[in-house]
Amino acid sequence: MRRWILRSQDPQLYYEIKDHQKELRRRFQDKFGYALIINPLLAKLEKIPGQAQAWMGIQAFESIREYQMFCYLLMFLEDKEIEEQFILSTLTEYVALCFPKGEVSWNSYQCRRQLIHVLQYAVKSGLIKVTDGDGEGFLRNEQQEVLYENSGISRYFVRNFMQDIMHFQEPEEFSRSEWFAMEEDRGIVRRQRIYRKLLLSCGVYPDTQKEKDEDFAYIRNYRGHIARDLEQLFPCELQVYSSAAFLVLDREHTIGNVFPQNHALHDLILLVHAALRKRVQANTLTLSANEVIEMEIDACERMVQKVIRANRSMLPKKYQEESISAKKLCEQLLSLMESYGFMEQREHTCLFFPVVAKRSAAYREEEA
């Protein structure tokens, strides 16, 4: 889903939302507890997940340091006026001072590369604009200057919290702070949390750490009511099973990132899903009580590499080149599957969630 709608980039959709803001505010506040922010720059729905998951991070970032740099960028922009310009060197000086002394040096190619990732994401998100220069030049030379312009929307990137978060030590504390001074497992709070899970997760599963997962029981007991509520807001269908619940979009509609797309790696993921189903049907893989597949990571990598080698001739040429080994392609594939929430890699095992059974495929024999 889109983080926000910028008036400068999509004025038609911005004004459509603005014209219907009263009804939209009522529906999203009631069903999800989401605030709708509309100002002269943007329209934004504060989409807070019902349960934070690892794949919900910023996919463009590859390290914790990039998140740190991004936070410092937001702090830097906080003191800038709308359309105020600044040069890259003023930002690099500010960021270096924010880190403990010596932790960041722009003589380091890795540090420069991380900052470029952050700036590219900021430009793509509309936080800043490139007025003159090329950020890629900073990779080659730390003295390279680029002129940026502050768009003024950076202050809306981080949501407002209902209490002081400076004493928080665990991620779960952010979730609890959302319903400050309210009982988390009663009434409207439970309903809003469940609706958020269904909307922002590719699948909702029972929590095996609990003797009885009350949230999942709520979905099963009130599936009809939940389905009517969500179908009034989105072109979707609620599918509920003994071990999973899915909110499935109609085929002709797309919201945000949709799987599968016309991409070779998506094709391979579908083929991996098919291989998993065959192994379960042949009893060479067993399902847990909540229908999760658990495999030793070595066995998982062998299976994925086998799928890659068996279908490599069907892939685009760039994936057939010898420079891209099956092992390297396997790493890319598992990382992508994890980013979509299809599976989770742990220290020695891989867990595949029930959603993998929803989508699988095979190449037609005449194409083989």
TrEMBL record:
Record-linked InterPro entries: CHP02678
Top-level division of the source organism's lineage: Bacteria
Stated name of the protein: TIGR02678 family protein
Organism: Amedibacillus dolichus
Lineage: Bacteria, Bacillati, Bacillota, Erysipelotrichia, Erysipelotrichales
